[in-house]
Structures are given as C-alpha cells and as structure tokens.
Write a structure and sequence with these properties.
Blueprint (H helix, E strand, L loop, with lengths): L2 H8 L14 E5 L7 H11 L6 E4 L7 E4 L3 H11 L3 E2 L2 E2 L1 E4 L6 H14 L14 H9 L7 H26 L4 H10 L6 E2 L14 E8 L6 E6 L10 E2 L9 H16 L14 E8 L6 E7 L6 H17 L5 E8 L13 E5 L3 E5 L2 E5 L9 H15 L5 E6 L5 H6 L5 E6 L2 H13 L5 E5 L2 H10 L5 E6 L8 H9 L3 E8 L6 H8 L11 E9 L9 E8 L8 H10 L24
Parallel strand pairs: 7-22, 12-13, 17-18, 17-20, 18-19, 20-21
Antiparallel strand pairs: 1-3, 1-6, 2-3, 4-5, 8-9, 8-11, 9-10, 11-12, 13-14, 15-16, 21-23, 22-23
C-alpha cells in the first residue's frame, strides 16, 4: 500500500456526509499563561460574535489549542477575528488546522505494518489477551486483586493526592509551616488525620446504574449490548458482553439480554461511530436496591426517521417489553439522541411504558429516581458515605446545613433529622423539583431547595441562614467547584465547618488549596483548615474511591497579621474566578449535579 493510498483512507471519514468537528477546525496559538476555557468561549462567542462549537485543549502546553466550528464560513470568520487579536497582553495566531486522521483506520494500518515487522512497538490495545480479560481490564481494572489489597492500593493513592495538597499548603503559607511540620509527625507525614478507608458493604453486584453501548461483538459478529473494549481514539469500536463482570447485578444483566434480543430482531441496525450510520446507540439501566425495580432508558439516533416512524419505534418497544419476561423492568423510556447544533437544547427521554420513576432508600429515606437524576451508584456504600459525613459535621438541632450541589436532595434529606434546617441549592431546575418531591415523600418539613446559578444563588441562600452554627456540605461534579463558589464560601463568616465530598480527589486539590489559603483582599474570610479525611470505597474492583474531607474555619486573624494579609494579596493576583481554575474545560461556571 502506497503512502498516498494509506493517507486517503485515514481521511475518508471527512467525505462520509456526517458532521465532524475536524472538518472546520482552527489552531489557536500564542495564548496567555493563565486563562480558562469558559473565559475563552466568552471572548469568542460573546465579545467577538463567533459560534465555536468545541474547544480541544492539548494535554501538554497551555499556550495553544484547537477550536471547532459548524461550517467553513464560521471557521473563516473566526480566523479573521482572532488572528492578531491582543488578549491578556498576548497577540493570538489563528490558522486553519489539519484534520486528525481517523484513529480506527490508522490503527489498522499500524497493525498491518506490525504484522510484517514484529519488532515494531505494540498498539495501545493488547490483543494478545482474550476478549473477557480485555473487558475486565477496561471496566474493572482491580478485578485480579483480593478486596483487602484493593483497599490498600486505594489508600496509598489517596494519601499521595493528600500529600500533594499538604505540600501546597506548606508552600503558600509561611506562617503555618512550623505547625504543619509538627502535625506531620503525628499523622504519618500529613498535617491532618487520614482515617482508615471505609469498606463497601457490598463488593459484587453493587451498581444501581450502568450505561451500556450497543455495537458489534468482534467474536460473534452479532449486535451486542455491553461495554466497549477501548475508546474510538485508541482505535476500537468493538463491544463485549457483560455477563462476566462481577460489579453488575444479575437482574441488570438479564435486562440487558432482553434488550439485546430486541435489537437483534429489529430491522434497524446498531449505530456505528465509524460512519455515523445506524440507530441503536446505548442502554441505560437503573435498578432499585430497595425493591429490585428496573428502569430502562433506550437511546437511539433517529437519523431521518419521520414522526410516524418514531411513533412506530415506541409502539414496538412497548409491545416487546409488555410481552417479554420483565426481569423486574417496571419503567421504559426512549431517548432520541440526534446531533445537536451549538446552542440547541438536548432532547429529553420520552416515557413509553410503566412507572415514570423508580424509588430507592438511603438511611431510611425514600428517593424517587427519574431517568436523568443523579443518584450514588452504590446505594449501600452511599449509606456509609452520608452517615460518615453526618458524624464528621457534628450537626445539632440548632445547626443549619447548606447543601451545595444538592441535586435531588439525597444528602440534605439524610441530614434533615439531625439539624434544625437544610437549605439546598442546585443549577438544574428539574433536580430541584425532584428534591422537593423527595422531601414531601418523606414528610420532611425543615428542608428548602433553590434553583439558580452559583454566583447569585449561593450568596442569597447563605443570607437566609440565621443560626450561629452553619455547616456547608459540597458534593460537586468530578472536576470540582468553580472559584466563584469557593470565594463565596470563604467570605461568608457564618460557615464554621465544611464537608467536601469528591469522587475524583485528584481533580479537586486546587479547591482544597483555595479553601485553605491565607486571607487576602479576594479571600477576606478566614481560611478553612483541613481536620481529617475519610476515603470511602464506593467502587470495588475499580481504581475510583470517594473522599470526604472535613474543614473547620480558622479563628479570624488579629490586627497584628494585617500586613500578612496584604502580602498574600500580592501573591494572589492570578486568582481570578475564570482565569485561575484548573481543569477549566471540565469545570462548569455554576454548580450542577451529575458526575
């Protein structure tokens, strides 16, 4: 095969007719050292009147990135506006970017080369392993380790994350270095206590929600509902069955097989990410640990199906799941997921059959779960997590709890009987509706939930907290809280203690640092001091672990340290909410629920 033919094959996807962000891409260079993706989008879309659809930040280097547009006209307009534009003291360079080669085709070409030359380096996916082993490695990478060893590995990883945080504390506050060093002698190298990891009460079949992909099994060549063996960019679109995975409940596996039989009988083929053809994309299964009820959310690309043809699809789904063995299936939705244009609202799941919700129980509280509601995926583990948070908070009848990122109210409602009042705030209005409905379901009257953006809602909610003992609990998305929310919490002196819950501790260490850094002109409230951390294993057989950190407000600085505050202000010039936030591409401008 000539190099020209190989290259043509790698870029053939651009001519298949479907939209690809690679078609209308620019390279933007000369960016300033400190900036946020949200800030850059605001510059491009609002100030310059552009319509950027996607920004692709590079793993290495903050000074350049790719920006994608819907068509050539929008791309050319962006180049004209951005090339030579001065932003934060830097002159930007904008040029047309070459599309990336199709990774799937590229990998196949590499495999052919490797077959001819075995000494060539292997590709990312190790095909010397059987399909079952590759699936386990991809989905539950700790499957080979005994559970006690998994806990040891996770404890070690959490300690490394906390050591990084602790070292940052030592760097940014010279006045506390002596105390930090003394505490490290007490707490095995940390300046605060790391408590033993909490075990998951259930280590097999613990998941109450899974999102399965519809694709082709590379062994049977049949349409299959399962998990991908690797991502497209690693050169894989194969899907493997999930019956061998120990973290999925048996009834959920049966429900997957029932749907799999449906798509194999269907005249509509599975969706293909290679050429964007086909219909059936994925299946989300939610299962109640309380009564075993199962909800299915079937996602499909409608392609060019007419309204009547979509109705026919819904009727076929209804008929099939009415006649087939239920396996506990009590609720079915269909979700028509078409390619959205910039600014277009996503489609919502459509109820097809059975109940509109399922219910589950945590710490004696019942919660209704809708298709898109956030709910901890390990119900038994969530009881451990929330009870530990309650214990650490030391709430009492006179306390007011501020539930930041409250979602459907699970944490706040579990706290409700232990404190005087719960005030929850949440960006997503539908989640707030669910939270209020859950309060009614449990006859709880001391909880109020508010919808709105962080920069406005958090301040207003805190103003309603009139008690002397105010505790905040935050359980944000994977990437953490935006700096504006951190600043509001720091600057409100009512908040005496803060419980931070994170499913991705390595992503939120900057939040920890900003809560703890010394007072300044921007952060004029006294800092929060880390007291202890508790890992909770919510995800057996995987690398993930939940972490709770208890912070307590330091006593207000005396007049003698006013000069230190001024000095810290000078060191904090780059602490702009939209500039200084790490992982800004993933961190939202306001608080939200799902992780």
């Amino acid at each position: 095969m000539t190099e020209e033919v190989r290259t043509n094959e790698e870029y053939a996807y651009l001519d298949r007719g479907g939209f690809s962000s690679e078609k209308h891409k620019i390279e933007l260079r000369g960016l300033p050292k400190f900036y946020g993706i949200a800030e850059l989008k605001k510059l491009m879309n609002q100030k310059l009147g552009l319509s950027v659809s996607k920004i692709k930040r590079q793993k290495f280097g903050n000074h350049w990135l790719y920006a994608c547009f819907q068509n050539d006209e929008e791309r050319d307009k962006a180049i004209t506006a951005l090339n030579g534009y001065e932003w934060k003291g830097k002159k930007l360079i904008a040029e047309i970017a070459k599309p990336a080669p199709d990774p799937l085709v590229k990998r196949k070409q590499e495999c052919k080369v490797n077959d001819k030359n075995p000494k060539r380096q292997k590709t990312e996916i190790d095909e010397t392993k059987c399909q079952e082993e590759r699936l386990k490695d991809a989905v539950i990478p700790y499957w080979k380790y005994p559970y006690e060893e998994q806990l040891t590995l996770k404890t070690k990883e959490i300690k490394q994350v906390l050591m990084k945080f602790d070292n940052e504390l030592w760097k940014i506050d010279k006045q506390k270095r002596s105390k930090i060093e003394d505490n490290r002698k007490l707490y095995d190298g940390l300046s605060f206590e790391l408590k033993p990891i909490e075990r998951s009460p259930i280590i097999e079949g613990y998941r109450n929600k899974c999102e399965f992909t519809v694709g082709i099994d590379e062994e049977t060549k049949k349409p299959t509902v399962g998990f991908r063996l690797g991502c497209y960019w690693a050169g894989s679109v194969a899907v493997a069955p999930v019956q061998v995975l120990k973290h999925i409940p048996e009834n959920m596996k049966k429900a997957v097989l029932v749907f799999q039989e449906f798509i194999r009988k269907s005249e509509l083929p599975p969706y293909s990410p290679v050429d964007y053809s086909g219909y059936w994309k994925c299946l989300t299964v939610r299962q109640s640990s309380h009564n075993g009820d199962i909800m299915l959310i079937i996602a499909m690309d409608p392609q060019i199906l007419s309204a009547d043809e979509r109705e026919k699809v819904k009727e076929e789904i209804n008929s099939y799941f009415t006649s087939e063995e239920s396996c506990g299936i009590t609720s079915v939705y269909v979700h028509f997921v078409a390619k959205r244009r910039a600014g277009e609202e996503p489609a919502k799941p459509i109820h097809v059959l059975g109940a509109t919700h399922i219910t589950d129980t945590i710490l004696g509280r019942q919660f209704r779960i809708s298709p898109e509601a956030f709910f901890q995926i390990n119900t038994a583990g969530a009881e451990i997590l929330y009870q530990k948070a309650i214990d650490l908070s030391r709430v009492n009848d006179n306390s007011i709890l501020i539930d930041v990122c409250c979602g459907t109210g699970t944490i706040g409602l579990c706290f409700a009987k232990h404190c005087g009042q719960v005030l929850g705030l949440e960006l997503i209005e539908k989640a707030v509706e669910d939270a209020r409905a859950n309060a009614l379901l449990n006859n709880i009257e001391n909880c109020e939930f508010y919808a709105g953006k962080a920069e406005t809602t958090l301040h207003a909610v805190l103003a309603r907290a009139s008690a002397d003992d105010v505790i905040a609990v935050v359980d944000p998305p994977r990437a953490g809280l935006h700096m504006s929310a951190i600043t509001t919490l720091r600057n409100n002196k009512k908040v005496k203690r803060l419980i931070y819950i994170s499913c991705s501790p390595a992503s939120v260490t900057k939040n920890f640092v900003d809560l703890s850094r010394a007072s300044s002109k921007t952060l004029h409230g006294a800092p929060f001091i880390p007291i202890c951390a508790v890992p909770v294993d919510m995800f057996p057989h995987t690398k993930h672990v939940e972490l709770i950190v208890l912070f307590e407000r330091e006593q207000e600085p005396s007049n003698e340290v006013a000069d230190i505050v001024k000095e810290n202000t000078e060191e904090e010039k780059n602490l702009d909410p939209e500039v200084k936030t790490d992982n800004q591409e993933d961190i939202i401008d306001t608080l939200c629920i799902d992780i």
